[in-house]
Amino acid sequence: MLEGLVISIDAMGGDDAPGMVIKGLEYFLTHEGKGRRARFLLHGDHAQLAPLLAKAPRTRERSEVVHTDKTISMDDKPSQALRRGKDSSMWNAVAAVKAKRAEIALSAGNTGALMAMSKLQLRMKQGVQRPALAALWPKENGVSVVLDVGANIDVDAAQLTEFAVMGEAYHKALYKSEAPSIGLLNVGTEDQKGNAVIRAAHERLSQSQLGLNYAGYVEGNDISTGNVDVIVTDGFTGNIALKTAEGMAKLIGTFFTEALQGNLWSRILTFLNAFALLKLKRRIDPRRVNGAVFLGLNGIVIKSHGGTDPVGFANAVNIAIGLAETDFMDEIDKRLDALHDEDDNIGFIT
User: Fold this and answer.
1) Which of 328, 323, 312 is nearest to 32 (CA)?
2) Average pLDDT over residues 68-92
3) 324 phi and psi, to 5 degrees?
């Protein structure tokens, strides 16, 4: 049995798993994990994992393989995954958290299946209606948290308020921020803008006595250029915004490369400005913020992008360990309890 800080990993989840997963762990331990005492519980097919681990000595030393030959397809519907997915690599990764064999579960597999399995096994925190998927988002002066980015298509005002509280706790845990600012994504900043759900959530957050640093409405451009640390929205809007940003980052990278390699003069300038260009490339690299967290569960589950590479997966591992080393779950419990008590006192309908 592994001891210490244990991360439970769905080794078969992702477009290029299990190779990408093992390479990602090895990358993390080589470049970012020095001095970190995490251990890894790898769930997957031993026959496929053994030769990969033979080429990854650092990961092999830190890991234990829990064999299963059952996997969840990226195309499986959540209902199908629940019916057929028991004892799969994804199911077992979450089950290890439930059984207290690991602090956090991590998968790059099917998002809907992972959410369904996590809700069924870990259950929701008391008073929380639905989990939110929180993603990290680079901005001019740091990184913001955006939630929900895909777990809930339709939400109500109470759920958006819960997202705000959980997003605040997440930002505090990762970045040690004292009072992260919170914005509610809307089509404008005027009070009369937005639908009934958005306006009701705005009223709740404006009247809250929890000491939230609520900044009011923000617009889409504020996600990347504004000063707000936590952006709250529904999963439909958040997922579209996230995928749009990822596509734009790739497009800019392509245009950038084409421009620099266009002619001899461009190549000379590229050589002379190599350090600055590498710094810019890193800042717009979506892999450095890979790893979204399901908030609101009785346990921590992290979703890596299914199409990521070893560098992106290593970042998701880094987020997992960073959360495991904080009192993140206790902080969320305290904030949610205070929020629900306040709703009862004010008389909001939940």
Assistant:
1) 312
2) 91
3) -65, -25
